[in-house]
Amino acid sequence: MKKSSFLFILILVTAIMQAQERKQPTAGKPPVVNIKKPQSFTLSNGLKVMIVENHKLPKVTFNLTIDNPPFAEGDKKGVDDLCSSLIGNGSTKISKEDFNEEIDFMGASISFSSNSAYGSSLSKFSKRTLELLAYGALDPKFTQEELDKEKAKAIEGLRSQEKSVSAIANRLVNALSYGKNHPSGEFTTVESLSKITLEDIVKNYNTNFVPQNAYLAIVGDIKYDEIKPLVEQLFGSWKKTTTSKTIYPDPENVKTTQINFIDVPNAVQSEISLVNTYTLKMNDKDFFPAVIASYILGGGFNSYLNMNLREAHGWTYGASTNIGAGKYVTSIRSSSAVKNNVTDSAVVEFVKEIKRIRTEKVTTEQLDNAKAGYIGRFVMKAEKPESVARYALNIETEDLPADFYENYIKTITAVTKEDVLAAANKYFLIDNSRIIIVGKGSEVIPGLEKLNIPISYFDKYGNPVEKPVYK
């Protein structure tokens, strides 16, 4: 028995030593992804149609997108959201009940919003699915009864979030960063919802659901010559209308770092967000370095912020960074929810990690892991119909080169440590950041005041107020 045990231990030790001597395999060549180019045509009303034939599976997807510039709604904020809820709740060409019954029978999926429509079905039902999608999108039936139902649900939802620290934080991060009169900064209230009428919904639809800014991407087991006449028949009568574009001044970052504090007495945690606004377009040369820098800072489990605030200190379940990109002004937001008694310490660590990625080159391992993550996700998504449709749409709406996604892997692979450092310095403007904190003032403010960072106070609707006074 002893001899057998000794022999087993000897074999185990030998195996461990051999494993330690093995060299880590070198990474192979990046995979080659073949993304099919769409066949396109444009209707006289301006609708651009992109069709990608893919006969691997008997399935077809339809993506209709209205690429309108952002617009503010003022004292009736919520009209567009309600319009999204009402589209698809009936059509002038088919009843709501018959519509839903047909969808269930085919096993299809159709959904709508105020600026899009989506449909998916087996290829044998594709033509009928597209017909129903067109009926719902182009001939909606808006009724007072349905509007009253949706308004009541929206108002109830807002009231249920009145004391939610995370809901208040999400609302005010945008309101304070962009301004309450900016399309990205305004927010819905019970009062704004109460003012909305059925005429507002109809006007919003007629003004914004227009073909000249629309794209229809069709991907799947369908033939171009067969689907084109149907598209022309269903969407050719969609009337082109005159639309106006409002220019909004870009929000400005603060001149020096400041804390914007919102007191919520029932808060058991503080919601912390560090925010900068900027414009980062997908065709900018530093787009990929910026998103990789964001991932290393706060995009994965092993990111700077998560390893610091969660793993090293145990203050939070997670810390993250979200970076925006597109044609219009956007933002980068690093955030976390932490215990009240460590709010001030967490702010210090946030600032430290952002300064770190601005001053130190990332390691080879960190850079390679970030690249591998992006490449892996891209390869997994590239074959999916919804991804193919999104890529085709992005090339059109984001003014991307035709080979943007063909070169996606090559472009990511080419990003260097110096590129990441330069992008972090350009976009992670820690010296001009708003540090927006929603928390329990009586427990949090004394510690924050010791940081020697200017503090401004706001109520839960973004209005400036005096510093809270506690007994």
From TrEMBL:
Domain of life where this protein originates: Bacteria
Keywords, sorted A to Z: Signal
Signal peptide interval: 1-19
Residue intervals of the Peptidase M16 C-terminal domain: 195-373
UniProt-recorded Gene Ontology molecular function terms: metal ion binding
Keyword Transcription regulation: no
Any Pfam family matching the protein: Peptidase_M16
Gene3D superfamilies for the chain: Metalloenzyme, LuxS/M16 peptidase-like (3.30.830.10)
SUPFAM superfamilies reported in the protein's UniProt record: LuxS/MPP-like metallohydrolase
Peptidase M16 N-terminal domain boundaries: 49-179
PANTHER family xrefs: METALLOPROTEASE (PTHR11851), PROCESSING PROTEASE (PTHR11851:SF224)
Name assigned to this protein: Insulinase-like protein
Species per Swiss-Prot/TrEMBL record: Flavobacterium seoulense
